[in-house]
Each structure stands twice: as structure tokens, then as C-alpha cells.
Amino acid sequence: IWAVSFGVVNVILFFYITTLQSPKLAAFNALVLLVFAVVSNLFSKRIAQLNRAISEKHAVLMEAFSDFMTNIKTVKRLGVYAFAEGLISRREYAANEQAFVGSRFHAKRWFILHSIYFFGMWATFAFLLYNITQGTGSASILILYSSIFISIRLYIERLSEIIKFAYEHKGNVLALQQLFAGVDKAVAHVTQKVDVKNWEQIVLNGISFQYAESTRPIQIPEFALRSGEIVGIVGESGQGKSTLLNILFGAIELIDSVSIDGEVLRSIEPFAKTHMAYVSQEVELFNLSLKENLLLGRKLNQKVLDQGLVSLGLKAWVESLEKGLETIVGEKGVKLSAGQKQRINLLRGLLLEKDILLLDEPTSHLDQETEQLAIAYLKNALQGKTAVIVTHKLEVLSLCDRIYEMQEHTLKEKEVTDDAVNWSSTGSRTSKGSSEGEAAA
Predict the structure, then answer these.
(1) What 3-state DSSP class applies to 245?
(2) Is 329 helix (H, G, I), strand (E, B) or coil?
(3) Cα torsion at 187, 193, 199, 204 (round to 10°)?
(4) CB atoms within 10 A of CB 322
(5) Which of 247, 278, 306, 343 has the most CB atoms at less than 10 Å from its CB?
């Protein structure tokens, strides 16, 4: 208010003195000032729009960064670092590009406004110089106008900045309102290439691991996973089954405890990053569309995706959604039920086509009918693949070539005969369809 008041007073004095000198000169400067104000207003509106766009781009960038950091375990388990980094990089590039457009327009704005201002000033000086040469003016008037133009320039520029600030403030408020209302932006997919190395056997040997709050260590004397086989892990809750998966995946770092084809690794994490996908029972979905959550940056034939959705009983549900596969699932998949999230989680893990799948209770949170669909899907999808499955479900264990049991925090391999299709956590084997086996389940 103080700045505007000073500016208004100086402009009024300027036009008063100019009118005394020449009404035509006053009218000319009034026209120039009007053009300056109109152009400044138009530019300020445009700058506000650009700043709003910049705010939106940065908001989208920070949303993606926050989303991936919140779900960093899922990024690690699925080994989709390239997807996460690529998506964030693309959003960062878009934000920087928008900021560059804004700064370039800002420079253009000041060039044009200064051109208008100096046009009025030099035209006034030319008029006064002409009067001096004609003997109708004096040098003192020219000096007076020079000081006036220098004085009011600051106030006019400040007035222009106030108009710009007002539009920017309005634009930022609108941008925040839309952000809090949950405006989601789609981003382009990022193609990920996976370097595949031939391997025959992974062995965990002589491992003893203990959590700080635990009273006894988890013992893994030996665990072997051969290429192309499916290994089941059973045992009561709290025995260390998930810990085994975390060690195998490299989430728990144990030096020189893992070997591949006889070569002891300092760390398995680099290998796991490329070759393994860990489908945890702790389902974390990204605040993206269903399709992006399923593909994670990969290009996949729509027919293959549809087959997976049909096999897991998700196709009809997806088609019932207004935007289908483009539906945004919300932060951590808040818009989906537990069963829907579990099946989406399972499908995306298998669609990654990694060498090794680590499945932690893949049929949890599913009702009996849906569970049967998931088991049938696993039976078909895991053919010829390598997998480690932690499960309490007997029918899931029937998919396994070998079975280990965690008992008293120690891993032991159990013998599996050809006719043993189901396995209970107590170690008893029953034939398929046996009511005793169902009771044990």
C-alpha cells in the first residue's frame, strides 16, 4: 500500500507538470502508461499460468519421489530400479523444462515492458529538445523531466511486480487446491533392459542370523535353489521363513554366505537386483494407474496382460471401472480391496519375467474361490521357472519340487515322494483330495 501510494502520488505530479508544459505531451504519456499497464497485466496473467504449470510439474515430481521412497521395499523386491529412476528423471526433466519456459518468458516480458517505458521517455525527451531548438522550451525543463522519469520508473516497475505477484499468488492457491484434491498426472513408460546370466545353483550355507530383539538366532545350515525348480518353505509364524527370503534377496546383508555355481559372493544384492522379483505379502502399490502398476515401465503385449487378468479373476472388475486399466489406485493402493491388491501384486511380479521369483504367502487375503484361481494361475505361470514359495497352503506346496521346513528357528529339508502332492506344516504328507490333508491345512 505504501509503495502504491507513493507511485500514485508521483504519477499524478508527473501528469500535472506535463499538462502545464503541454496537454498533448500529457495525453501521449498517459497513452504510453495505459499501454504499459495493459501489457503488464496480460504478461502477469501469462506468468501466473506458467508458474502454476511449474508448481504442478514440481508437485508431480515430488509426488513420484515420495511415492517411490515410501514404497522403497517394493522397488527393491521387484528390482524395478530402472523404472523408478527413469520415471523420476522424466518428471524432473519436465519440471526443469517448464521452469526454463517460465524464465525465458519472464525475460521477454521485461524486455517488452522496458521498451514501452523507454519509448515514452525518449519520445518525451525528443519533444522537449525540439521545443528547446525552437526557443519555446528550456534546458531546466529537460533536466526536471529526466529526474521525474528516473523517479517514477521504480514505482511503475514495482506496480508491475505487484500485479504479477497477485496473479502468481492466485495461481499457486489454485494449484495447491487441485493438488490436495488429488490431481494425478500420467507419465510415459520407461523401457527396462535386464541383463540375464546363466546360472545353475544358488546356495546359502552356514548362516546364523539373529534380530536384536530376538532371544535365539535363525539357523540356515544349507539351502539350495537349482535353476528351473520350485522350492517350498513351511513352518509356523515367527520361525524365520520371511527372513530366509530377505537373505536370499539381499535385503539382509550377510557377507560371504551365498554362493552361485560354487563361487562365493561378497554380496548377493547385485545379482538379486537383476535376476529376482520378491512378491511380498506386504502389498505396496504406487499411486499410479493399474496399468502402470502392472507393467512398471515394461512394454507388454495387451493379450498377455489380459490373459493374466482373466486367470486371476480381475478382468471383469477392471472392465467395470470407468477408466479401466487407466484407473489411479491411490497411495499404496488405497482404492483397492485387500484381495484385489494381492492379485495385482502377484500378477505384476510374474509379468516382470525375472529369473527367480520369491513368493511370500502369494494367496493370502484371498477367499477360497479366488485362491483356487490364483493357484491355477501359479501352476501355469511357474512352469519351467525358478521360484521359492513361503506358504501354509497345501495346494500351493503341491507345485513344489522340494520342501524345506523352518522348525525351532532352524531350516531343514523334507523328503518329498512322487505321490506326495500335499504337505502340512507338521511334516505329514497326504494324497490329493484326502480329508485328513484338508484337516491338517
Answers:
(1) helix
(2) coil
(3) -30
(4) 6
(5) 343
231 contacts 402 by C-beta, under 8 angstroms: yes
Residue identified by cell 523328503 is 415
Calculate the CA 43 to chain-centre distance: 33
Q: List, for residues 26-69, the tens digit of each pLDDT value.
A: 888 888 888 888 888 888 888 777 877 887 788 888 878 888 88
Cell numbers found for residue 419: 505321490
According to DSSP, residue 236 is labeled -
Q: Please, which residues have CB within 8 angstroms of residue 107's CB and are 6 or more apart in sequence?
A: none
Could you identify the residue written with the cell 500535472?
16
Q: What is the DSSP string of 413-434?
A: EE---TT--EE-TTS-EE-TT-
Which triple of cell numbers denotes residue 232?
517350498
Distance CA 147, CA 140 (A): 11
Closest by Cα among 298, 390, 379, 312 to 347: 312
Sign of CA dihedral 68, 73, 74, 77: positive
pLDDT in tens, 332-357: 778 888 888 889 989 999 888 888 99
Q: What are phi and psi of 211, to 5 degrees?
A: -75, 155
What type of residue sits at position 24?
K
Q: Cβ(249)–Cβ(257) under 8 Å?
A: no
